[in-house]
Amino acid sequence: MQENIIKQFVIVTGMSGAGKTMTLKVLEDLGFITIDNLPPELLPQVFKLFSNRPEISRSRGIVATIDVRNVSENFAQTIDEISKAWGGVVKVIFLTASDEELLRRYERTRRVHPLNKGLSTREGIRFERELLAPVLDKADIVIDTSMMDLHQHRERLLKEFFVDSDGISILISSFGFKHGVPQDSSFMLDVRCLPNPYYVEELRNLTGEDDAVKKYLLEFRETHEFMSRVKNFFDFAIPEFLNNVRGQMHISVGCTGGCHRSVAVAQWLYEDYSQKYNGVCVIHRDKPHSQIQVRTGA
Fold first, then answer.
1. Do the strands 141-144 and 90-96 form a parallel or antiparallel pair, or are they unpaired?
2. For residues 110 and 88, what is the distance between their CA atoms, to the nearest angstrom?
3. What's residue 247's pLDDT?
4. What is the structure's pLDDT at 169?
5. Which one of 141, 168, 207, 286 has the fewest beta carbons within 10 angstroms of its own beta carbon?
């Protein structure tokens, strides 16, 4: 059995219009490598490809979506084969919603159901449920998105893959712009204006969690002024947001690569606001070997 460097292997499937694309974007923002609309027959090849690439160890795992047009009768067998070859569990997420809610979504977006060949949208939904029944039986997690907005959807995924998010009110994340911008931020900070430790040779292989990097950044007036202005803003914005906006507050902090400046600033915000509020979580999306930190009590 090969060495397991893939932390998680996740298949996202389910009803068309139930939120597969949204799920893919959220998990990508949280550090997964994502592949959209993959035929199940290619899953073993994808697994073999990534299991031989050392950089996969920097991610939280692989997520692939499969829609009804690509689901085959050998789906369950394919999942079992990957699990056996890997020595780990392939987790299958099945997304669903009520017929009425799916109809509303199709009407709102003016999309055509993928099985709409001589069928009404309602008939296409019914036929899709029949086709996906064997896949539903194989699912490890079933999520009904009928009454979910984006924040609730993200919280559900965060709870499933990271921590118990019931008590999390503020999510702080760092990221690298070159790896893509998080799509679900409430507030985004661009810290590329700060001095870059990457260009200091002895700091290049460290991260913003290391004291040497933090000390370097704090040698500059710009860092102190930036943090002062940011904290003044969030001292006002956080209580207003938590009191008036439904859902979890997500503060994302970005630098070029997501390893130095963004990590340090996200850590400073976490250390400050986790002392003032219940349920603060920090995630460093693009930092190698990142660990999630959560403080659920102020």
1. parallel
2. 40
3. 62
4. 80
5. 141
DSSP of 105-134:
HHHHHTPPPTT-SSS-HHHHHHHHHHHHHH
Neighbours of 1 (CB within 10 A): 7
CA 38 from centroid of its chain's CA atoms:
19
Q: Are 227 and 194 in contact (CB under 8 A)?
A: no
DSSP 15-50: STTSSHHHHHHHHHHTT-EEE-S--GGGHHHHHHHH
List phi, psi (to 5°) of 263: -65, -45
Q: What is the maximal distance between C-alpha atoms in the chain?
A: 68
Q: For 29-46, what is each residue's pLDDT tens digit?
A: 777 888 888 877 787 787
Place of tokens 């040497």: 212
Helix (H/G/I), strand (E/B), else coil: 149: coil
> Cα–chain-centroid distance for residue 229?
29
Task: Give the span between the Cα atoms of 259 and 186, in whole angstroms.
Answer: 21
H or E stretch including 77?
A: helix 75-86
For residues 292 and 229, give the distance between their C-alpha atoms in angstroms, rounded to a whole number: 26
Nearest to 82 by CA among 111, 49, 122: 49
Q: Alpha-carbon distance 227 to 264, whole Å? A: 11
Is-above-0.70 flag for pTM?
no
Q: Using pLDDT thresholds of 50, 70 and 90, give the confidence band for residue 164.
A: very low
- Partners of 282 in the beta sheet? 172, 293
Structural contact between residues 272 and 172, judged by C-beta atoms closer than 8 angstroms: no
User: Residue 93's beta-bridge partner residues?
Assistant: 12, 141
pLDDT in tens, 223-281: 999 999 999 999 999 999 888 875 678 899 999 999 999 999 999 999 999 999 888 88
Query: Percent helix, strand and coil across the chain, each rounded to 5?
Result: 45, 15, 40
The first and second tokens of residue 152, run together, are 């609730």
